[in-house]
Design goal:
The complex is a heterodimer. By secondary structure, chain A is an alpha+beta fold. Chain A contains 14 helices and 15 strands. Classes of the chains: A alpha+beta, B mainly alpha.
């Protein structure tokens, strides 16, 4: 496993923890509400929304890392109780005396309290006409009751990214090749519509073709992270964003997409120094093979190469020393069944040194969940499309999260949404 | 992606089964050799090695399809499919143009996952019969089954280039287009395939079922362009699956009738009956009966008519002549249907006369059932004395559930409680009645009895008034009685009146068990009217105000749907 020490973040968090302890001193608040996140919780996903909206109302929450599945501690307020009751979220009143005991317990084990101060402003990179059910993150945000703003190429071009703290990308293909779906779907109405809409946007924004448009988008996203933004990507966006960034001066798109074949020496000319997570990956040049590169370990759409789904395990980090990766892996299950996506996993051989591996499959050459710093910001990549639809196919019905209220996979997504709330404050100081 | 592959495979297997089922007709005409018959027995007994020996011997003597397919099956069971390959090679050398050997060869190589050998076998086959669509068709099928649509598509394209048409690969094209999400193109190809192979209707419906809502009209337009049975059956199956039973029947009913169409209508009617679409079942079964009369069909049609609320049809659909020659069927099917119909029509005297006519043929059990049916018939007319007399003839007057209902109608609440609680056949009506009766105090309740009696007679307007009156006399069960009245209002489409009662229950009897149910119904009514904000307010009030209610999970789910934070059904 490759890890980063996060010394600067640790120092800032120590200050924040001290601040939280001050607020939590006896007498400051009569009572708190503990939102347990172990098996006592009846709706884990809504609990994130409750915490987020508490912060949004200007109230400081606490994330109790590794305590009962990563519980939350909220001030006891009528509105909080009301929301919890409406959404079926389990909460437990905590008296001042119990709180002192709880804090002693936190101090004595691999646990930590992290204040959550400011609700991050959230943007999701998604086409304007996309159904929310197409994307696991928008599904989770909608279900949890967390507000977000959909943005796409026009907004990126306008510089709107500066308005947001957290950006999510889902299954966009930033190489501009639509995940090579033209192989099987070139005559499908939805594919034709998508192609036409993107071509029109490219023309309107002055790009010669879709691959150039998407390369421009990738560059703006890279800049967003470099300047201190939080990026969370899943599925094919992880792999193609990195390929597009590395290919800033190389043509890696097939003839169908930009009218010219892939540059003959494209592989050798990829500039991995600019990429965030990967290095030395090799392009899949054939337009007839439904794969982008050798970054993905599972290759779900290439019959001869497809690897079966296994189970992956979340790493256990030291909550006091490594609070950031700890936040990202909070959960009530640490072993999960894997799920497919256009990009399901990341081959270890393509990871840059310093990348923090958050989850891996034992004995497999790939990992599932990775994180790292880039410039002043951070990125987190989670492979696969939908944690509760492991064999997801185009046209499948949307996942109904009210039937998966305690999904451990969806919790990983929502961990990412709250994590900037803990980090944003130190960045400002 | 992967799940889609599964769907093709299931579709392909279904289609392949259909095709295979049509093939053995020739084989069945010839008398099988003793070796083959013995091999069948051994195969059935699970003795695959011994069966393989006999199939192989038979194949050497005469290379029939039966022997080859038998050998293929048992080798597959033994996981020795590769042992079939040398035999197939020898047979192909002998008869290079025979499609059966080639098809089995492709299938075997598919099972063995020998992709290169599979491709080579296909190419050799094309060389041997360059103008024949069979190699393209069979190889495309194999590729679809393997979940390789892009390659399958290229083979279909190649057949078009080589033969000038892909007409013979319509089904494969249709499956491919569906697998690629090209629903309209798939429908066009299915239509072509169905014009020659109408038995593929189920396969077509299966393949087209995942069509997204926005594209379904295009699929409908394609398949409804003609009136051939195959296409229409495919649409009917699709519409049933998509939750539009009336559209399903509309698609099927205009096919020019013949006996095959009559069978299709009867089959459709049975399915509609199973899904409790009684009016549509009645229409389909009646249409079928008009072309091809059988006693069984007449009984099913009469049953559907009765359940659809058209009891007058029973006499027309199931006349005595239909079953006169079969006394057992007469008392088992004809009699209950006609008694129930006469009861529904308010003709208890005719029902009594009918039962009396066949009384001697009834078993004791049938006699009890008939007396209860007659009692119900009398209750419908309000004649409780004759209803009791009807029960008395079967010795049922003081002990049965029917007696409990009679007691309730007469306002004898104590007897009603005792008799209804002892019922062995609980149902929604009984649960509802017990829910009210068990909440009342005292043994007498004429007003309450009158309310239930009006309901039993189908006089819903009077029933509402009586339930409201009874709620004044029985304050201990006030909320339950008002909720009963509200339910009847809602069933009559009088939503405003229902909302008035629901709001009264919620507002003035908030602690009662009926408050949560009233509020849920109220919220649903508001959503139906498009008042989503009002519905959300009601649901939130329910959740916060009745935290112990068993309806909370349902209320939360409907709150999510109203907020659009989960997909609506």
């Amino acid at each position: 496993m490759t890890r980063m020490p996060f010394p600067h973040l640790r120092r800032r968090l120590v200050c924040l923890v001290a601040l939280a302890m001050t607020f939590a001193a006896p007498g400051a608040h009569a009572q708190r509400l503990l939102v347990p996140m172990d098996d006592a919780q009846t709706n884990h996903l809504k609990a994130y929304g409750l915490t987020y909206n508490t912060m949004k109302a200007g109230v400081v929450a606490e994330w109790l890392l590794n305590y009962r599945g990563g519980s939350f501690l909220l001030p006891d307020a009528p509105e909080t109780r009301r929301r919890a009751a409406l959404d079926g979220i389990s909460v437990e009143p905590v008296s001042d005396a119990s709180l002192a005991t709880l804090r002693r317990e936190l101090g004595g084990g691999n646990m930590e309290s992290v204040p959550l101060e400011k609700a991050p402003r959230i943007a999701v990179y998604t086409p304007p006409d996309a159904q929310p059910w197409d994307d696991a993150v928008t599904l989770a945000l909608k279900y949890a009751g967390i507000d977000f703003t959909p943005i796409y190429d026009t907004e990126l071009e306008r510089g709107d990214l500066t308005k947001y703290d957290w950006l999510h990308l889902h299954h966009e293909d930033f190489t501009g090749q639509f995940n090579k779906f033209h192989l099987g779907y070139r005559d499908a109405p939805w594919f034709r519509d998508m192609y036409a809409a993107n071509s029109a946007t490219a023309r309107a924004l002055g790009y010669p073709h879709i691959p150039a448009l998407k390369k421009g988008a990738a560059e703006r996203i890279r800049g967003f992270v470099e300047r201190g933004g939080f990026l969370f990507a899943m599925c094919g966006a992880t792999e193609t964003l990195e390929l597009a960034i590395a290919a800033h001066s190389v043509d890696i798109a097939g003839q169908f997409n930009d009218g010219t074949p892939v540059d003959a020496d494209a592989d050798a000319r990829l500039d991995w120094k600019r990429a965030m997570a990967f290095r030395d990956a090799h392009l899949e040049r054939s337009p007839f093979v439904n794969s982008m590169s050798d970054i993905d370990g599972h290759q779900v759409n290439v019959p001869g190469r497809r690897q079966p789904l296994g189970t992956f395990t979340l790493f256990s980090f030291s909550a006091k020393i490594d609070p950031v990766p700890s936040m990202l892996v909070q959960g009530h299950r640490n072993v999960m069944n894997d799920w497919y996506g256009v990009t399901t996993s990341f081959n270890k051989s393509t990871l840059k040194p310093g990348v923090v591996v958050l989850a891996t499959e034992e004995g497999a050459p790939w990992v599932k969940y990775i994180h790292g710093d880039y410039g002043k910001g951070t990125w987190t990549y989670l492979g696969g499309h939908d944690p509760e639809d492991p064999q997801h196919a185009i046209g499948n019905p949307p996942t109904d999260l009210s039937l998966h209220r305690s999904s451990p996979g969806y919790r990983l997504i929502l961990n990412n949404v709250l994590f900037p709330a803990a980090k944003k404050k130190p960045l400002k100081t | 992606m992967h799940r889609r592959s599964e769907r093709w495979r299931r579709g392909a297997v279904l289609a392949a089964l259909v095709v295979v089922c049509t093939m053995p007709a020739t084989a069945q005409e010839s008398v099988e050799s003793p070796e083959i018959m013995r091999a069948y027995d051994l195969e059935t007994a699970g003795k695959y090695r011994e069966a393989a020996l006999l199939f192989r011997t038979a194949l050497r003597a005469s290379p029939t399809a039966t022997a080859l397919l038998g050998l293929e099956r048992v080798f597959a069971e033994l996981r020795q499919s590769d042992s079939l390959l040398p035999t197939l090679e020898a047979l192909i050398v002998q008869r290079p143009r025979d499609p059966l050997y080639r098809t089995v060869q492709l299938r075997t190589l598919q099972i063995l996952r020998r992709d290169e050998a599979l491709r080579a076998a296909f190419e050799r086959w094309v060389l041997d019969v360059p103008r024949d669509p069979a190699p393209y068709r069979e190889y495309a099928r194999v590729l679809i089954a393997l979940g390789r649509p892009v390659l399958a598509d290229s083979i279909v394209q190649r057949s078009r280039d080589a033969l000038g048409t892909a007409h013979d690969l319509s089904m494969e094209t249709a499956q491919l287009r569906a697998a690629q999400g090209q629903w309209e193109a798939s429908a066009v190809a299915w239509r072509r395939a169905l014009s020659e192979q109408p038995y593929l209707a189920s396969a077509a419906a299966h393949a087209l079922a995942p069509t997204p809502v926005g594209t379904r009209d295009a699929v409908r337009r394609v398949l409804l362009a003609g009136r051939a049975l195959g296409e229409r059956r495919a649409v009917a199956e699709l519409e049933l699956g998509w939750g539009s039973p009336q559209d399903a029947w509309d698609a099927l009913r205009i096919v020019p009738p013949d006996t095959a169409v009559a069978s299709a209508w009867a089959e459709f009617g049975e399915r509609a009956l199973g899904e409790e679409q009684f009016a549509i079942a009645r229409a389909a079964l009646t249409a079928s009966l008009a072309i091809r009369r059988t006693p069984e069909l007449a009984i099913r049609a009469a049953d559907a008519a009765l359940q659809a609320g058209v009891p007058s049809d029973v006499a027309l659909l199931l006349p005595l002549a239909e079953v006169a020659g079969d006394p057992e069927r007469l008392v088992r099917d004809y009699l209950p249907l006609h008694v129930a119909a006469l009861s529904a029509l308010g003709r208890p005297s005719d029902a009594s006369a009918l039962v009396e006519r066949y009384d001697r043929a009834l078993t004791p059990g049938q006699r009890v059932r008939m007396s209860r049916a007659l009692a119900t018939a009398w209750v419908r007319t309000g004649d409780l004395a004759r209803a009791r007399a009807a029960l008395g003839t079967a010795g049922d007057a003081d002990s049965s559930e029917a007696a409990g209902w009679l007691a309730l109608y007469e306002g004898r609440l104590g007897d009603a409680r005792r008799l209804l609680r002892s019922s062995r056949e609980p149902g929604p009506a009984l649960a509802s009645a017990l829910g009210v009766v068990s909440r009342t105090r005292g043994d007498e309740g004429a007003a309450l009895g009158a309310a239930f009696l009006a309901l039993a007679r189908g006089d819903s307007a009077t029933a509402i008034a009586r339930f409201v009156q009874a709620s004044e006399r029985h304050p201990e069960a006030r909320s339950a009685l008002l909720l009963a009245a509200a339910r009847i209002h809602a069933a009559r489409g009088e939503e405003t009146a229902a909302v008035a009662l629901w709001s009264q229950i919620v507002g003035t009897m908030g602690e009662s068990p009926e408050a949560a149910e009233s509020e849920l119904e109220w919220a649903r009514a508001l959503r139906r009217r498009g008042d989503v904000r009002g519905a959300i307010a009601r649901l939130e009030h329910l959740i916060l105000g009745s935290p112990q209610s068993a309806l909370l999970p349902q209320a939360r789910r409907e709150l999510e749907q109203a907020r659009r934070s989960i997909p609506s059904p």
